[in-house]
């Protein structure tokens, strides 16, 4: 893996608060992030912005997560590829931000997928540019693991549905949002902490 690419991507990465402000500023101009600008993308981005506002207020770390974060003794950066129109990113980024805020050992940076094609192409999921994609990077700028685009339980739901129905439809996407709301970020916390503890 090209270490220069990771280093450059980290330098380009912005904080969660800067990302949220960037999206709100674009929405004020009736734009979304990404290469495709149309009404559908704008609608998704608007919905996701409201969703993230709500999650920023509601998401809490479990006691288990807080305990695990306190045990971390190495520094890591979570470098996340995302876009404002992505529903999964909107559900997951507020949780990842809370996790990063919970430990002095963790830093969080976000880069946009469509502006970082070279990086995205290194970390495809089943050949696709699925986001959010989290790169877990150590202090030597080495990617020690990746995660995403969804928590493990949601990934299983997606795979099972595709096996049975061939593709994801509007009905499944609605059910996935219901699952996210019920899960309250717990599965994502478990997944990320499992990776960090094993590193």
Would you summarize the structure shown here?
The protein is of the alpha+beta class and 199 residues long. 57% of the residues lie in helices and 13% in strands. Strand 3 and strand 4 form a beta hairpin.
Rounded to the nearest angstrom, the radius of gyration is 16 Å
Q: Please count the helical segments.
A: 9
Strand arrangement, major sheet: 2-1-3-4
CATH superfamily: Glutaredoxin
Helix coverage percent: 55-70%
Could you list the spans in which at least 5 consecutive residues all have pLDDT below 50?
none
> How many DSSP E strands?
4
Terminus-to-terminus distance: 18 Å
Could you characterize what this model shows?
57% of the residues lie in helices and 13% in strands. With 199 residues, the protein is α+β, with helices and mostly antiparallel strands. It has a single domain (3-198), classed as Glutaredoxin (3-Layer(aba) Sandwich). The chain has a 4-stranded mixed beta sheet, with helices on both faces. The longest helix is centred in the first third of the chain and has 20 residues, at 39-58. The protein is globular. The two termini are 18 Å apart.
Features:
4 strands; Glutaredoxin; alpha+beta; four-stranded mixed sheet
What order do the helices and strands come in, and which of them pair?
Layout: H1 3-12, H2 16-28, H3 39-58, H4 63-71, E1 76-82, H5 87-101, E2 106-112, H6 117-122, E3 133-138, E4 143-147, H7 152-165, H8 170-183, H9 186-198
Parallel strand pairs: 1-2
Antiparallel strand pairs: 1-3, 3-4
């Amino acid at each position: 893996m090209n270490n220069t690419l990771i280093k450059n991507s980290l330098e380009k990465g912005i904080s969660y608060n800067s990302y949220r402000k960037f999206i709100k500023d674009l929405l004020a101009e009736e734009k979304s992030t990404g290469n495709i600008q149309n009404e559908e993308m704008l609608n998704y981005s608007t919905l996701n912005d409201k969703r993230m506002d709500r999650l920023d207020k509601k998401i809490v770390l479990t006691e288990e997560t807080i305990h695990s974060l306190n045990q971390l003794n190495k520094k890591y950066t979570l470098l996340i590829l995302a876009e404002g129109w992505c529903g999964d990113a909107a559900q997951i980024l507020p949780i990842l931000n809370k996790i990063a805020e919970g430990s002095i050992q963790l830093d969080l940076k976000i880069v946009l997928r469509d502006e970082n094609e070279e990086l995205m192409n290194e970390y495809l999921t089943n050949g696709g540019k699925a986001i959010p994609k989290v790169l877990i990077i150590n202090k030597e700028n080495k990617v020690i693991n990746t995660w995403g685009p969804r928590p493990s339980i949601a990934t299983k739901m997606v795979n099972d549905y595709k096996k049975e129905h061939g593709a994801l439809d509007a009905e499944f996407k609605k059910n996935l949002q219901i699952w996210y709301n019920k899960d309250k970020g717990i599965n994502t916390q478990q997944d990320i902490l499992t990776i960090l503890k094993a590193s």
